Amino acid sequence: MASSVFSASIVFCFLVLLGLSLAAHASAAAAGRSRQRTDGEVRAIYESWLVKHGKRYSALGEKEWRFQIFKDNLRFIDEHNSENRTYRLGPNRFADFTNEEYRSVYLAAKTGSRRSLLASNRSSRYASVDGESLPDFLDWRERGAVTPIKNQGSCGSYWAFSTVAAVEGINHIVTGNLLSLSAQELIDCETLNNEGCNGGVLDFAYEFIINNGGIDTDEDYPYRAAQGDCDDKLYLAKSKVVTIDSYENILENDEKALQKAVAHQPVSVAIEASGMAFQFYESGIFTGECGTELDHTVTVVGYGTENGVDYWILKNSWGALWGEDGYIRLERNVGGAGKCGIAAEASYPIKGNPTPVTPIPIPASSAPPPPSENFCEGYFTCQEISTCCCVSEAGKPCNSWACCPYENATCCADNQTCCPKEYPICDLSTRSCLMSNWRNPFRQVMAAKHVEAKHRGAFVNEGRARA
Fold this sequence. Notes:
By secondary structure, the chain is α+β, with helices and mostly antiparallel strands. The chain folds into 3 domains: 39-84; 104-350, Alpha-Beta Complex (Cathepsin B, Chain A); 373-466, no CATH class.
Protein backbone atom coordinates (compact mmCIF):
# COMPACT_ATOMS: atom_id res chain seq x y z
CA MET A 1 0.00 0.00 0.00
CA ALA A 2 2.76 2.45 1.00
CA SER A 3 4.65 1.55 -2.18
CA SER A 4 1.60 2.50 -4.31
CA VAL A 5 1.21 5.85 -2.56
CA PHE A 6 4.92 6.56 -3.02
CA SER A 7 4.74 5.71 -6.74
CA ALA A 8 1.69 7.94 -7.23
CA SER A 9 3.50 10.80 -5.51
CA ILE A 10 6.48 10.42 -7.82
CA VAL A 11 4.20 10.49 -10.91
CA PHE A 12 2.38 13.56 -9.60
CA CYS A 13 5.63 15.42 -8.96
CA PHE A 14 6.90 14.50 -12.41
CA LEU A 15 3.74 15.87 -14.07
CA VAL A 16 3.97 19.10 -12.08
CA LEU A 17 7.61 19.58 -13.05
CA LEU A 18 6.81 18.80 -16.69
CA GLY A 19 4.02 21.38 -16.70
CA LEU A 20 6.26 24.03 -15.15
CA SER A 21 8.96 23.26 -17.68
CA LEU A 22 6.58 23.58 -20.63
CA ALA A 23 5.16 26.81 -19.25
CA ALA A 24 8.64 28.23 -18.77
CA HIS A 25 9.58 27.22 -22.31
CA ALA A 26 6.47 28.89 -23.74
CA SER A 27 7.13 32.00 -21.70
CA ALA A 28 10.73 32.13 -22.89
CA ALA A 29 9.61 31.70 -26.50
CA ALA A 30 7.09 34.51 -26.16
CA ALA A 31 9.71 36.71 -24.53
CA GLY A 32 12.07 35.95 -27.38
CA ARG A 33 9.45 36.93 -29.94
CA SER A 34 8.67 40.24 -28.24
CA ARG A 35 12.25 40.99 -27.17
CA GLN A 36 13.10 44.60 -27.79
CA ARG A 37 15.93 45.16 -30.20
CA THR A 38 19.07 46.88 -28.98
CA ASP A 39 19.78 50.45 -30.06
CA GLY A 40 22.58 49.13 -32.21
CA GLU A 41 20.25 46.74 -34.05
CA VAL A 42 17.64 49.44 -34.56
CA ARG A 43 20.30 51.89 -35.73
CA ALA A 44 21.53 49.43 -38.35
CA ILE A 45 17.97 48.80 -39.57
CA TYR A 46 17.34 52.55 -39.67
CA GLU A 47 20.43 53.30 -41.77
CA SER A 48 19.50 50.56 -44.22
CA TRP A 49 15.93 51.88 -44.35
CA LEU A 50 17.18 55.42 -45.13
CA VAL A 51 19.06 54.10 -48.16
CA LYS A 52 16.17 51.94 -49.39
CA HIS A 53 13.67 54.81 -49.28
CA GLY A 54 16.07 57.56 -50.35
CA LYS A 55 15.44 59.56 -47.17
CA ARG A 56 17.55 62.65 -46.43
CA TYR A 57 16.97 65.19 -43.68
CA SER A 58 18.13 68.79 -43.96
CA ALA A 59 17.04 70.28 -40.62
CA LEU A 60 19.53 70.21 -37.78
CA GLY A 61 18.87 67.28 -35.48
CA GLU A 62 16.00 65.94 -37.62
CA LYS A 63 17.72 62.64 -38.39
CA GLU A 64 18.04 61.82 -34.68
CA TRP A 65 14.50 62.94 -33.96
CA ARG A 66 13.21 60.75 -36.80
CA PHE A 67 15.29 57.87 -35.47
CA GLN A 68 13.40 58.01 -32.17
CA ILE A 69 10.08 57.90 -34.06
CA PHE A 70 11.41 55.01 -36.18
CA LYS A 71 12.45 53.16 -33.03
CA ASP A 72 9.00 53.50 -31.45
CA ASN A 73 7.29 52.39 -34.66
CA LEU A 74 9.60 49.38 -35.02
CA ARG A 75 8.74 48.33 -31.46
CA PHE A 76 5.03 48.50 -32.36
CA ILE A 77 5.68 46.45 -35.51
CA ASP A 78 7.65 43.77 -33.64
CA GLU A 79 5.00 43.42 -30.91
CA HIS A 80 2.26 43.19 -33.51
CA ASN A 81 4.09 40.55 -35.55
CA SER A 82 4.76 38.43 -32.43
CA GLU A 83 1.05 37.53 -32.41
CA ASN A 84 -0.59 35.00 -34.71
CA ARG A 85 -2.33 37.10 -37.36
CA THR A 86 -3.32 36.82 -41.02
CA TYR A 87 -1.10 39.78 -41.96
CA ARG A 88 2.28 41.29 -41.14
CA LEU A 89 3.57 44.79 -40.61
CA GLY A 90 6.94 46.19 -41.65
CA PRO A 91 9.02 49.39 -41.58
CA ASN A 92 7.67 50.79 -44.85
CA ARG A 93 7.90 54.34 -46.24
CA PHE A 94 5.96 55.71 -43.25
CA ALA A 95 8.27 54.25 -40.58
CA ASP A 96 9.67 57.67 -39.59
CA PHE A 97 6.20 59.26 -39.36
CA THR A 98 4.12 59.51 -36.24
CA ASN A 99 0.59 58.32 -36.76
CA GLU A 100 -0.62 61.93 -36.45
CA GLU A 101 1.75 63.06 -39.23
CA TYR A 102 0.73 60.15 -41.44
CA ARG A 103 -2.96 60.98 -41.02
CA SER A 104 -2.58 64.70 -41.58
CA VAL A 105 -0.52 64.36 -44.78
CA TYR A 106 -2.06 61.33 -46.49
CA LEU A 107 -5.62 61.03 -45.20
CA ALA A 108 -7.11 64.52 -45.43
CA ALA A 109 -10.34 63.17 -46.88
CA LYS A 110 -13.41 65.19 -47.75
CA THR A 111 -16.25 62.76 -47.08
CA GLY A 112 -19.04 64.84 -45.60
CA SER A 113 -19.93 66.60 -48.85
CA ARG A 114 -20.33 63.28 -50.63
CA ARG A 115 -23.28 61.88 -48.68
CA SER A 116 -25.95 63.81 -50.59
CA LEU A 117 -24.35 62.91 -53.91
CA LEU A 118 -24.32 59.23 -53.02
CA ALA A 119 -27.98 59.24 -52.02
CA SER A 120 -29.02 60.78 -55.34
CA ASN A 121 -26.94 58.48 -57.52
CA ARG A 122 -27.31 55.03 -55.95
CA SER A 123 -27.89 52.29 -58.50
CA SER A 124 -29.24 48.76 -58.17
CA ARG A 125 -27.52 47.75 -61.42
CA TYR A 126 -25.28 45.33 -59.53
CA ALA A 127 -27.70 44.37 -56.77
CA SER A 128 -27.12 40.76 -55.73
CA VAL A 129 -29.69 38.16 -56.78
CA ASP A 130 -30.35 34.95 -54.88
CA GLY A 131 -28.87 31.95 -56.63
CA GLU A 132 -26.64 33.88 -59.04
CA SER A 133 -23.09 32.65 -59.55
CA LEU A 134 -19.98 34.85 -59.48
CA PRO A 135 -16.35 33.77 -59.94
CA ASP A 136 -14.66 32.68 -56.71
CA PHE A 137 -11.51 34.57 -57.74
CA LEU A 138 -10.95 37.56 -59.99
CA ASP A 139 -7.91 39.78 -60.52
CA TRP A 140 -8.09 42.52 -63.12
CA ARG A 141 -4.29 42.76 -63.06
CA GLU A 142 -4.18 39.33 -64.71
CA ARG A 143 -6.64 40.52 -67.35
CA GLY A 144 -4.50 43.52 -68.31
CA ALA A 145 -6.88 46.22 -67.03
CA VAL A 146 -4.63 47.72 -64.32
CA THR A 147 -1.73 50.12 -64.83
CA PRO A 148 1.41 49.92 -62.64
CA ILE A 149 1.29 51.27 -59.08
CA LYS A 150 1.56 55.06 -58.84
CA ASN A 151 2.81 57.26 -56.02
CA GLN A 152 0.91 60.33 -54.85
CA GLY A 153 3.91 61.51 -52.81
CA SER A 154 3.13 63.96 -50.02
CA CYS A 155 0.10 65.33 -51.90
CA GLY A 156 -3.35 64.23 -50.66
CA SER A 157 -4.46 63.35 -54.19
CA TYR A 158 -5.65 59.80 -53.47
CA TRP A 159 -9.11 60.76 -54.84
CA ALA A 160 -7.63 61.55 -58.27
CA PHE A 161 -5.64 58.30 -58.41
CA SER A 162 -8.66 56.22 -57.39
CA THR A 163 -10.71 57.90 -60.11
CA VAL A 164 -8.22 57.38 -62.92
CA ALA A 165 -7.57 53.75 -61.91
CA ALA A 166 -11.27 52.96 -62.28
CA VAL A 167 -11.47 54.83 -65.61
CA GLU A 168 -8.31 53.09 -66.89
CA GLY A 169 -9.94 49.76 -66.06
CA ILE A 170 -13.28 50.29 -67.78
CA ASN A 171 -11.60 51.88 -70.80
CA HIS A 172 -9.44 48.78 -71.26
CA ILE A 173 -12.37 46.41 -70.79
CA VAL A 174 -14.42 48.20 -73.45
CA THR A 175 -11.73 49.15 -75.97
CA GLY A 176 -8.86 46.74 -75.29
CA ASN A 177 -6.43 49.65 -74.76
CA LEU A 178 -4.68 50.21 -71.43
CA LEU A 179 -3.70 53.86 -71.05
CA SER A 180 -2.22 55.48 -67.95
CA LEU A 181 -4.36 58.55 -67.27
CA SER A 182 -3.49 61.88 -65.68
CA ALA A 183 -4.28 62.38 -62.00
CA GLN A 184 -2.52 65.74 -62.31
CA GLU A 185 -5.17 67.04 -64.71
CA LEU A 186 -7.86 66.38 -62.10
CA ILE A 187 -5.76 68.04 -59.37
CA ASP A 188 -5.08 71.18 -61.45
CA CYS A 189 -8.33 71.54 -63.38
CA GLU A 190 -11.15 70.17 -61.19
CA THR A 191 -10.98 72.99 -58.65
CA LEU A 192 -14.64 73.96 -58.54
CA ASN A 193 -15.50 71.29 -55.96
CA ASN A 194 -12.24 69.49 -55.09
CA GLU A 195 -9.15 70.77 -53.29
CA GLY A 196 -6.21 69.18 -55.08
CA CYS A 197 -3.62 67.98 -52.57
CA ASN A 198 -6.02 68.66 -49.70
CA GLY A 199 -8.53 66.01 -50.69
CA GLY A 200 -11.40 65.53 -53.08
CA VAL A 201 -14.60 63.71 -53.94
CA LEU A 202 -14.82 60.94 -56.53
CA ASP A 203 -18.22 62.03 -57.85
CA PHE A 204 -16.94 65.48 -58.82
CA ALA A 205 -13.90 63.91 -60.49
CA TYR A 206 -16.11 61.66 -62.62
CA GLU A 207 -18.34 64.62 -63.50
CA PHE A 208 -15.31 66.64 -64.58
CA ILE A 209 -14.22 63.90 -67.00
CA ILE A 210 -17.74 63.65 -68.43
CA ASN A 211 -18.26 67.41 -68.82
CA ASN A 212 -14.74 67.91 -70.17
CA GLY A 213 -15.33 65.29 -72.83
CA GLY A 214 -12.44 63.14 -71.61
CA ILE A 215 -9.16 63.08 -69.71
CA ASP A 216 -5.53 63.22 -70.78
CA THR A 217 -2.76 60.65 -70.36
CA ASP A 218 0.06 60.69 -67.81
CA GLU A 219 2.57 61.02 -70.60
CA ASP A 220 1.10 64.30 -71.88
CA TYR A 221 0.05 65.68 -68.49
CA PRO A 222 2.58 64.20 -66.01
CA TYR A 223 2.25 64.08 -62.24
CA ARG A 224 3.98 66.74 -60.13
CA ALA A 225 2.74 65.87 -56.60
CA ALA A 226 1.58 69.47 -56.14
CA GLN A 227 -1.39 71.49 -57.28
CA GLY A 228 -0.71 73.96 -60.07
CA ASP A 229 -2.60 76.05 -62.59
CA CYS A 230 -4.59 74.14 -65.15
CA ASP A 231 -2.35 73.88 -68.21
CA ASP A 232 -4.64 75.67 -70.65
CA LYS A 233 -2.64 74.88 -73.78
CA LEU A 234 -2.36 71.21 -72.90
CA TYR A 235 -5.83 71.17 -71.42
CA LEU A 236 -7.44 72.33 -74.65
CA ALA A 237 -5.26 70.32 -77.00
CA LYS A 238 -5.05 66.83 -75.55
CA SER A 239 -7.45 66.46 -72.64
CA LYS A 240 -9.96 64.16 -74.35
CA VAL A 241 -7.96 60.98 -74.86
CA VAL A 242 -10.25 58.69 -72.81
CA THR A 243 -13.94 59.36 -72.19
CA ILE A 244 -16.66 57.94 -69.95
CA ASP A 245 -20.42 58.25 -70.34
CA SER A 246 -21.54 58.40 -66.72
CA TYR A 247 -20.92 56.99 -63.24
CA GLU A 248 -22.97 55.32 -60.49
CA ASN A 249 -22.68 54.52 -56.79
CA ILE A 250 -23.19 50.99 -55.49
CA LEU A 251 -25.90 50.13 -52.97
CA GLU A 252 -24.74 51.14 -49.49
CA ASN A 253 -23.27 48.55 -47.11
CA ASP A 254 -23.74 45.64 -49.53
CA GLU A 255 -20.55 43.61 -50.09
CA LYS A 256 -22.34 41.20 -52.43
CA ALA A 257 -23.28 44.10 -54.71
CA LEU A 258 -19.69 45.32 -54.51
CA GLN A 259 -18.41 41.86 -55.47
CA LYS A 260 -20.78 41.76 -58.43
CA ALA A 261 -19.60 45.18 -59.59
CA VAL A 262 -15.92 44.20 -59.24
CA ALA A 263 -16.66 41.09 -61.31
CA HIS A 264 -17.45 43.51 -64.13
CA GLN A 265 -14.84 46.25 -63.63
CA PRO A 266 -12.45 47.91 -61.14
CA VAL A 267 -14.37 49.97 -58.56
CA SER A 268 -13.40 53.05 -56.52
CA VAL A 269 -14.02 52.78 -52.76
CA ALA A 270 -13.54 54.89 -49.64
CA ILE A 271 -12.02 53.29 -46.54
CA GLU A 272 -10.72 54.18 -43.10
CA ALA A 273 -6.93 53.91 -43.20
CA SER A 274 -5.92 55.89 -40.12
CA GLY A 275 -4.77 53.07 -37.80
CA MET A 276 -1.12 52.26 -37.17
CA ALA A 277 -1.63 48.68 -38.37
CA PHE A 278 -2.83 50.02 -41.74
CA GLN A 279 -0.01 52.56 -41.83
CA PHE A 280 2.65 49.84 -41.54
CA TYR A 281 0.87 47.05 -43.48
CA GLU A 282 3.35 44.84 -45.33
CA SER A 283 1.65 41.61 -46.46
CA GLY A 284 -1.20 39.15 -45.93
CA ILE A 285 -4.93 39.65 -45.48
CA PHE A 286 -5.61 42.70 -43.31
CA THR A 287 -8.04 41.64 -40.58
CA GLY A 288 -6.99 44.32 -38.09
CA GLU A 289 -9.06 46.90 -36.27
CA CYS A 290 -10.51 49.77 -38.30
CA GLY A 291 -13.79 51.65 -38.35
CA THR A 292 -15.93 53.52 -40.87
CA GLU A 293 -14.55 57.07 -40.52
CA LEU A 294 -13.70 57.15 -44.22
CA ASP A 295 -10.49 59.06 -44.86
CA HIS A 296 -8.88 57.52 -47.97
CA THR A 297 -9.90 56.25 -51.41
CA VAL A 298 -8.44 53.30 -53.31
CA THR A 299 -9.53 51.03 -56.16
CA VAL A 300 -10.79 47.44 -55.85
CA VAL A 301 -9.19 45.42 -58.67
CA GLY A 302 -10.18 41.91 -57.57
CA TYR A 303 -11.06 39.51 -54.80
CA GLY A 304 -10.40 35.95 -53.64
CA THR A 305 -10.02 33.59 -50.69
CA GLU A 306 -6.92 32.31 -48.89
CA ASN A 307 -6.92 29.70 -46.11
CA GLY A 308 -10.65 30.21 -45.63
CA VAL A 309 -10.39 34.02 -45.35
CA ASP A 310 -12.14 36.06 -48.07
CA TYR A 311 -10.36 39.21 -49.23
CA TRP A 312 -10.49 42.23 -51.55
CA ILE A 313 -7.49 43.31 -53.66
CA LEU A 314 -7.02 47.08 -53.33
CA LYS A 315 -4.77 49.20 -55.52
CA ASN A 316 -3.28 52.02 -53.45
CA SER A 317 -1.38 55.15 -54.56
CA TRP A 318 1.50 55.08 -52.05
CA GLY A 319 4.14 53.55 -54.34
CA ALA A 320 5.34 49.98 -54.74
CA LEU A 321 7.34 50.01 -51.48
CA TRP A 322 4.15 50.01 -49.40
CA GLY A 323 2.18 46.81 -48.79
CA GLU A 324 2.26 43.96 -51.29
CA ASP A 325 4.05 45.85 -54.07
CA GLY A 326 1.62 48.74 -53.62
CA TYR A 327 -1.51 46.67 -52.94
CA ILE A 328 -3.32 45.56 -49.81
CA ARG A 329 -5.58 42.55 -49.38
CA LEU A 330 -8.46 43.52 -47.11
CA GLU A 331 -10.77 41.09 -45.33
CA ARG A 332 -14.06 40.53 -47.23
CA ASN A 333 -17.59 39.50 -46.21
CA VAL A 334 -17.56 40.81 -42.66
CA GLY A 335 -21.06 42.31 -42.82
CA GLY A 336 -22.43 45.83 -42.56
CA ALA A 337 -20.24 48.44 -44.21
CA GLY A 338 -17.44 45.88 -44.61
CA LYS A 339 -13.90 45.97 -43.27
CA CYS A 340 -12.76 49.59 -42.88
CA GLY A 341 -16.10 50.74 -44.38
CA ILE A 342 -15.24 49.48 -47.88
CA ALA A 343 -18.89 48.96 -48.89
CA ALA A 344 -20.17 52.33 -47.67
CA GLU A 345 -19.14 54.62 -50.56
CA ALA A 346 -18.25 52.57 -53.66
CA SER A 347 -18.61 53.93 -57.19
CA TYR A 348 -17.67 53.11 -60.76
CA PRO A 349 -17.52 54.88 -64.15
CA ILE A 350 -19.72 53.83 -67.05
CA LYS A 351 -18.44 53.49 -70.60
CA GLY A 352 -20.62 51.85 -73.20
CA ASN A 353 -23.19 49.42 -71.86
CA PRO A 354 -22.22 47.93 -68.45
CA THR A 355 -25.49 46.07 -67.95
CA PRO A 356 -24.83 42.55 -66.58
CA VAL A 357 -24.98 40.09 -69.43
CA THR A 358 -27.80 37.60 -69.72
CA PRO A 359 -28.08 35.22 -72.69
CA ILE A 360 -30.41 36.50 -75.40
CA PRO A 361 -32.98 33.74 -75.94
CA ILE A 362 -33.21 32.04 -79.29
CA PRO A 363 -36.79 31.65 -80.55
CA ALA A 364 -37.93 28.13 -79.69
CA SER A 365 -38.44 25.85 -82.68
CA SER A 366 -41.88 24.91 -81.41
CA ALA A 367 -43.11 28.53 -81.30
CA PRO A 368 -45.23 29.66 -84.27
CA PRO A 369 -43.14 31.75 -86.67
CA PRO A 370 -44.34 35.21 -87.59
CA PRO A 371 -46.63 35.35 -90.63
CA SER A 372 -44.06 37.21 -92.71
CA GLU A 373 -40.62 36.61 -94.16
CA ASN A 374 -37.17 38.12 -94.55
CA PHE A 375 -36.16 37.52 -98.16
CA CYS A 376 -32.58 36.55 -98.90
CA GLU A 377 -31.16 36.67 -102.45
CA GLY A 378 -32.64 34.33 -104.99
CA TYR A 379 -35.48 32.08 -103.82
CA PHE A 380 -34.42 31.71 -100.17
CA THR A 381 -36.09 33.23 -97.14
CA CYS A 382 -35.85 33.40 -93.35
CA GLN A 383 -38.31 34.38 -90.67
CA GLU A 384 -38.91 38.11 -90.34
CA ILE A 385 -37.04 38.59 -87.01
CA SER A 386 -33.80 36.99 -88.21
CA THR A 387 -30.81 37.62 -90.47
CA CYS A 388 -29.85 35.99 -93.75
CA CYS A 389 -26.29 34.58 -93.70
CA CYS A 390 -24.50 33.44 -96.83
CA VAL A 391 -22.85 30.09 -96.04
CA SER A 392 -21.54 29.01 -99.43
CA GLU A 393 -20.53 31.83 -101.69
CA ALA A 394 -19.29 31.10 -105.21
CA GLY A 395 -19.34 34.45 -106.92
CA LYS A 396 -22.44 36.64 -106.82
CA PRO A 397 -25.23 36.07 -106.03
CA CYS A 398 -24.80 33.73 -103.02
CA ASN A 399 -25.87 30.18 -103.84
CA SER A 400 -26.53 28.92 -100.28
CA TRP A 401 -28.19 30.69 -97.34
CA ALA A 402 -28.87 30.06 -93.67
CA CYS A 403 -30.86 31.97 -91.09
CA CYS A 404 -29.50 33.54 -87.91
CA PRO A 405 -32.21 33.71 -85.19
CA TYR A 406 -31.21 37.32 -84.31
CA GLU A 407 -32.25 40.54 -86.01
CA ASN A 408 -29.43 42.64 -87.56
CA ALA A 409 -26.91 39.98 -86.50
CA THR A 410 -23.27 39.39 -87.38
CA CYS A 411 -22.71 36.29 -89.51
CA CYS A 412 -19.56 34.50 -88.33
CA ALA A 413 -16.82 33.35 -90.70
CA ASP A 414 -17.29 29.68 -89.79
CA ASN A 415 -20.57 29.73 -91.78
CA GLN A 416 -22.25 27.92 -88.88
CA THR A 417 -22.88 30.51 -86.16
CA CYS A 418 -23.87 34.15 -85.69
CA CYS A 419 -23.88 36.85 -83.01
CA PRO A 420 -26.56 39.34 -81.87
CA LYS A 421 -26.07 43.04 -82.55
CA GLU A 422 -25.35 43.75 -78.86
CA TYR A 423 -22.31 41.39 -79.05
CA PRO A 424 -21.13 41.84 -82.64
CA ILE A 425 -17.64 40.28 -82.49
CA CYS A 426 -17.34 36.57 -83.31
CA ASP A 427 -14.81 34.56 -81.30
CA LEU A 428 -14.47 31.41 -83.38
CA SER A 429 -12.09 29.74 -80.90
CA THR A 430 -14.80 29.56 -78.23
CA ARG A 431 -17.86 30.01 -80.44
CA SER A 432 -18.91 33.01 -78.40
CA CYS A 433 -19.89 36.61 -79.11
CA LEU A 434 -18.00 39.53 -77.56
CA MET A 435 -19.08 43.07 -76.76
CA SER A 436 -15.56 44.30 -77.58
CA ASN A 437 -12.20 42.90 -78.66
CA TRP A 438 -11.27 42.40 -74.98
CA ARG A 439 -12.40 38.90 -73.96
CA ASN A 440 -14.35 39.60 -70.78
CA PRO A 441 -16.43 36.59 -69.60
CA PHE A 442 -19.09 38.96 -68.27
CA ARG A 443 -19.45 40.74 -71.60
CA GLN A 444 -20.08 37.79 -73.90
CA VAL A 445 -22.75 35.27 -74.89
CA MET A 446 -22.62 31.99 -76.76
CA ALA A 447 -22.93 32.22 -80.52
CA ALA A 448 -26.17 30.90 -82.01
CA LYS A 449 -26.26 28.15 -84.62
CA HIS A 450 -27.78 28.84 -88.00
CA VAL A 451 -31.09 27.35 -89.00
CA GLU A 452 -31.89 26.24 -92.51
CA ALA A 453 -33.10 28.82 -94.98
CA LYS A 454 -36.20 27.81 -96.95
CA HIS A 455 -37.82 28.63 -100.25
CA ARG A 456 -40.02 31.67 -100.35
CA GLY A 457 -43.38 31.21 -98.65
CA ALA A 458 -42.31 28.18 -96.61
CA PHE A 459 -42.26 29.95 -93.23
CA VAL A 460 -45.62 31.60 -93.87
CA ASN A 461 -47.21 28.30 -94.92
CA GLU A 462 -45.80 26.56 -91.81
CA GLY A 463 -47.24 29.31 -89.63
CA ARG A 464 -50.66 28.95 -91.18
CA ALA A 465 -50.59 25.15 -90.82
CA ARG A 466 -49.73 25.40 -87.08
CA ALA A 467 -52.41 28.00 -86.54
